[in-house]
Amino acid sequence: MPPVAIALGSNLGNRAAHIDWAVSRLRDLLDSLEASSYIETAPVGVQSQRDFLNAVIVGHTDLAPRA
Hints:
By secondary structure, this protein is an alpha+beta fold. It is about 20% helix and about 35% strand.
């Protein structure tokens, strides 16, 4: 199975809960999923926004990119 990497980020509401939810759903689709720790980053190119919480996941899948 080919590898896939997906970047995740949220700056609204409970940011960690949003990323946790996404990781949980992706575990249903990808084999041997690994998730990075979460890091906080400032928004780029905009003012007056909350910092983003970001992560990346890596796994393997038989799904086509658009699936």
